[in-house]
Specification:
six-stranded mixed beta sheet
Length: 446
């Protein structure tokens, strides 16, 4: 059981999680383009995963029930009531149905009891928070580094050769869609994703093509290839830290302002929640200096609903935070009808001064400098969206804090989310009609 440091209390947490299980998302890696054309939607299993995550976070950080297995000093100061307060809690998501729906599901169990004037916990889709969650899709400079690695790295070329038999077996088993060319290793995530959904999530794969069961060894071999490619693609050795720095900067800004008077604050004071994607987690690990140590957490794709929790700690006698702890909540997939669950892993502990030094590069980088480092716009949102706002008062320091009080931002966020979800549902319906008309599977691009 992960606890707080000896003599420490939890002041605030930042939760960064991958969305729950969703329908198949087919990607292709073409030069500097990192886009998704086919909308992937949250599955009922994904909703169950996220509800479990909300429950686990509540048990550890909010509940004060006598049967709770966690010691009292893990509860967040000032949250013992367990009632949602927009000044204390900020929930942010990227602009996709799977992440918005994931955050919404988690909030149902994180705050089952709500204020009478707050029937829902708003999930905010804010351009600056979204930028931080998916900075890897906004930075052409990162994509160019990944392309260079794929085309010139000797270890990569060796893996292409040694994994040929496994990749051919996947083609023969029908896991590679009929009509597709032999899958290149840089696109192997597509094959692993289809296999994972087929074997572990009731066959939720958007294809009318028959697929064959793979034994445990075959599934593990497919997973190992995807883990190797994706974890290295977003490591600091290959991609640098540009993809994770904007998110680390926002988290650090909230931590620094944990004691700001509620009337003046622009960040939530107790829980900062980000609903994102697996590259979001891998990119943050890179910015935290943990992507190159060849440990399990830095060499695998985070499973659906897996979460990183940065826990701000402070000694009772101290005037400011005294440390930060990183906890990895590793999602587990049940077998034989069991419940979804999480393994707690205490990955790293920093003193406050060590964490300040770690975040120094991210904090000191202005939006203009980040845009300059990334180069020309690229990806589905493009670096231009955020960079065109550079120099305006929408986010003056790149911290994600726009000067709007959290309670007001929450109301605006709730309205925006309703509109976004409605639009995404319309897109999904159109895409499904087109796919039905074609009577064949065609995926999106990445």
């Amino acid at each position: 059981v992960v606890v707080c440091g000896v003599g420490q209390n939890v002041r605030m947490i930042a939760v960064v999680h991958r969305h729950g299980a969703r329908t198949h998302l087919r990607k292709s890696y073409e030069g500097d383009d990192l886009t998704e054309d086919n909308p992937a939607t949250l599955l009922s299993q994904g909703e169950q995963q996220m509800r479990k995550l909300g429950e686990v976070i509540r048990e550890k950080y909010i509940d004060t029930l006598s049967e709770n297995p966690f010691p009292p000093n893990t509860y967040i100061d000032g949250m013992s009531s367990g009632v949602y307060d927009p000044v204390q809690v900020g929930v942010f998501s990227s602009n996709t149905q799977r992440t918005i729906a994931s955050a919404t599901a988690a909030m149902q169990t994180l705050f089952p009891t709500r204020n009478t004037d707050a029937s829902i916990v708003p999930v905010q889709v804010d351009i600056h928070r979204t930028h931080a969650i998916r900075a890897y899709t906004h930075c052409a400079g990162v994509a160019r580094k990944q392309t260079s690695w794929i085309s010139s790295d000797s270890d990569y070329k060796n893996r292409v050769s040694t994994t040929a038999d496994v990749r051919n077996a996947a083609q023969n088993a029908g896991i590679v869609p009929a009509g597709d060319e032999a899958v290149k290793m840089e696109n192997w995530f597509n094959v692993y994703d289809r296999s994972l959904l087929f074997h572990s999530f009731n066959g939720n794969v958007a294809s009318n093509q028959p697929m064959s069961e793979l034994n445990a060894t075959g599934q593990e071999s497919m997973k190992n290839i995807a883990d190797w490619v994706e974890s290295r693609k977003f490591s600091s050795k290959v991609a640098g830290t540009l993809s994770g720095d904007p998110l680390l900067k926002q988290i650090m800004h909230a931590f620094r302002n944990v004691d700001t008077d509620d009337a003046a604050r622009t960040d939530p004071s107790r829980i900062l929640w980000y609903s994102g994607h697996y590259p979001t987690l891998l990119s943050l690990l890179s910015s935290l200096g943990l992507s190159n140590d060849e440990k399990w957490y830095s060499t695998e794709i985070p499973q659906f609903s897996t979460a990183l929790v940065l826990q701000l700690e402070q000694a009772a006698s101290a005037a400011q935070p005294t440390g930060v702890r990183l906890i990895y909540l590793k999602a587990t997939i049940p077998t034989n009808g069991g419940d979804y669950g999480y393994e707690f892993h205490d990955l790293k502990e920093w003193t406050w001064s060590q964490f300040e030094q770690l975040a120094k590069t991210a904090e000191s980088q202005s939006t203009a400098a980040w845009c300059s480092s990334c180069g020309d716009a690229g990806g589905d949102d493009g670096v231009s969206t955020v960079c065109k706002l550079e120099g305006t008062d929408s986010d003056p320091d790149g911290s994600g804090s726009t000067g709007v009080h959290p309670a007001v931002a929450g109301v605006i966020g709730a309205i925006i989310v309703v509109a976004v979800v409605a639009g995404l549902i319309a897109v999904v319906m159109v895409a499904r009609r087109k796919r039905f008309a074609r009577q064949a599977y065609h995926g999106g691009t990445h």
